[in-house]
UniProtKB/TrEMBL annotation:
It comes from Penicillium flavigenum. This is Cupin type-2 domain-containing protein. Residues 43-100 form the Cupin type-2 domain. PANTHER family: BLL4564 PROTEIN, RIBD C-TERMINAL DOMAIN CONTAINING PROTEIN. It holds the Pfam family Cupin_2.
Length: 129
C-alpha cells in the first residue's frame, strides 16, 4: 500500500523535465510509479506540451490549475481548463499542454507502458493560437 499525503499534493516539489519528450519548460512532481501505474503532477509553462504519445492501458488527466489543450491524432485540439478530467483510452496517440497565455498543472495517472513519438508540429497546433 502507498499513501500519497495531502502535503505531497498541496505543496509539490517540482523538478525540471529532462526526458526530451516535451516542448517548452515542463516540471514534474512524482507521486508514485511502478510497473503498472504512474501518478505525477505536471506543470506546463505557457505553450509547453508533450510530444505525441500513447499509453498501453490508458491515461487519466485531471486539470488542476490553468488551461490548455488535448488532442488525439487526426482530431482537432480541444481546450481544457481547471476542474476538467480527460480519459485517453488505451492505444490512442495524443498530446496535451498549456495555452499561450496560461501555465497549466495536471495530474496524470498513466496505466501500463508508454510509447513516445514525434514532437507536435505547427500544423498539429492549428486552432490553439
Amino acid at each position: 500500500m502507498t499513501i500519497i499525503t495531502a502535503a505531497q499534493s498541496r505543496e509539490p516539489s517540482f523538478t525540471k523535465e529532462t526526458l526530451g519528450t516535451f516542448s517548452g519548460d515542463v516540471y514534474f512532481n512524482h507521486l508514485h510509479k511502478d510497473e503498472h501505474i504512474s501518478i505525477l503532477d505536471v506543470k506546463f509553462s505557457p505553450c509547453a506540451r508533450t510530444h505525441w504519445h500513447g499509453h498501453e492501458k490508458g491515461q487519466l488527466l485531471e486539470i488542476i490549475t490553468g488551461s490548455g489543450w488535448v488532442c488525439d491524432r487526426g482530431q482537432e485540439p480541444r481546450r481544457v481548463k481547471a476542474g476538467d478530467t480527460v480519459w485517453c483510452p488505451p492505444g490512442t496517440v495524443h498530446w496535451h499542454g498549456a495555452d499561450e497565455g496560461s501555465s497549466m498543472i495536471h495530474r496524470a495517472i498513466s496505466f501500463g507502458g508508454m510509447d513516445w513519438q514525434d514532437p507536435v508540429s505547427e500544423t498539429d497546433l492549428k486552432g490553439t493560437h
